[in-house]
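Board work, copied verbatim: NADP-dependent oxidoreductase
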Amino acid sequence: MRKISFAEFGGPEVLQLVEAEEPHAGPGRIRIAVRAAGVNPVDWRIREGQVLGAHPVELPAGVGLDAAGVVDEVGEGVEGVEVGDRVFGEGTDTYAEFAVLSAWARMPEGLSFEEAAGYPSVVETALRIIREVGVRPGQTLLVSGASGGVGSAVLQIARERGITVIGTAGAANQDYLRGLGALATTYGEGWVERVRHLGRVDAALDLAGSGVIRELVELTGDSRKVVSIADLGAPQLGVRFSGVAGSVPDALAEAVDLIARGRLHIPVEKSYPLTEAAAAHADSRAGHTRGRRVLVV
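↓ predict structure ↓
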């Protein structure tokens, strides 16, 4: 079996395509023949050796949390899924030809493997941080770094819940944010005033880690109304860093419902073959993503 692995922390160049033993589905798990794997910022953060308590690493290590594919092994005690089912979900070492999933759901009708692979961690993260920041219907949520996968999900889920959203992104992604129902503005000098011009901010999310925590606290007036998933220094400013996943099965169930009702769509900006995992990481690290990046296996 081919998989992506790294034997030392570092840049994208440490990723290697290697031959490895196939994993197998233990109790409460399933194995899939992977068709596509989601590329998430947490993947390259782990590869760089950033200290993420929820994801301890022993080297050499595989890469990837999200995948979509076809079930080919069902572990003891698992019900409601059969060999041959098309599923998407979260597991370990998903940049591979086979991967074991710990949480999964059947893919919604009409969704490709590439599209499905981009949803699991993204939707779980979006649901979690909306909950943690405490924003309510009728209030306004500011999303810094809104055009990527998590931002795309946050904007759509928040709008579905009756929350007004303001999104910041690069100039090229302004129409994309507006298409998701957000009030949009750009980064750069004067962005705080541009946000103020769009309206009052009740809560804010930092999705890009671009050094804007102080400004987000200033705009909300309360550090407890700001949550970051990208700035490890956020707690030093009294802001919660959210890095521990909640219920992935619940998030997948909600994703299936939203997708089926046409209320959630996250485009795939670019697909890469497994052999170009390093390029996918470099592009993800550079930011300015519109939607998701995935590996095709």
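The two ends are 11 Å apart (CA to CA).
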